[in-house]
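pasting Transglutaminase-like enzyme, putative cysteine protease for the record, 289 residues
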Amino acid sequence: MSVRVAIHHHTRYDYDRVVFLSPHLIRLRPVAHSKAIIESYTLTIQPANHVIHWQQDPFGNFIARVDFWEPMSMMSIDVDITARLEPVNPFDFFLDTYAQSFPFTYDAQLRKGLLPYMDVGEPGTQFSQWLQSIDRSTQGTIDFLIKLNQKVVQDIAYTTRMEPGVQTPDETLELAIGSCRDSGWLLVQALRHVGLAARFVSGYLAQVITAETKQNDPTKEHSLALHAWAEVFIPGAGWIGLDPTSGMLATEGHIPLACTPDPDDAAPVTGTTDVNETTFSYENTLEVL
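structre below
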């Protein structure tokens, strides 16, 4: 059964002095291939001393470029989305014959277009050892993807990490813990090292609690969070979302905002200010309509 939801995402930056802001890039608009059906979208920025120009980056993501013409002591960003979440079968796709078994080699023309998503960093000791433990024997491609996704879940504990940036695969493996973006980047790099095109995804995770679940556990609530995962390109199916935090394939509740070869290009907000002490706060809400 489909569910209509209202999504509200509020972010606020309070500065301890009046500052000038550089142009900011905001990546908080769902991408065209989102499984959620977006009925309405608004982006509101305060104060009103700015102009917004909508753009698309080289990877097809929507970006709001915000130029400010006056200094300010605070900035807030509000996103409001009305969406319809239609239940989807994440396995509802076909694979091209040559891609049904792993390993396989991309068609030459397709590979040219996927090159940005196949770039691998130089693996450190921890990552190199971990890569050697991956079963690369001939097997069904989907079976391989599921096992690799679950391997990340088993090896990396989840934590909420407010520090900016993404850990390297070596750092994540050495700590054996990371945020969703750390696990997502580890999975992206692992997929690339075994010859598969993969990209980093930043987005919303909308979780709707059913009446039955609520009845069994009254403490359960609808939730909305910024989240990160990976997508892998398999001929015939296209981009397949893999969530290494849960070990599941992405479904209608995964709402991508930016899909890029590198995590730096998927950050929800980028920009600079004059030197100051900043207080950051945010709120995410999900309401079933």
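Helices lie at 108-114, 125-132, 141-155, 169-175, 180-193, 211-216.
The CA atoms of residues 56 and 289 lie 31 Å apart.
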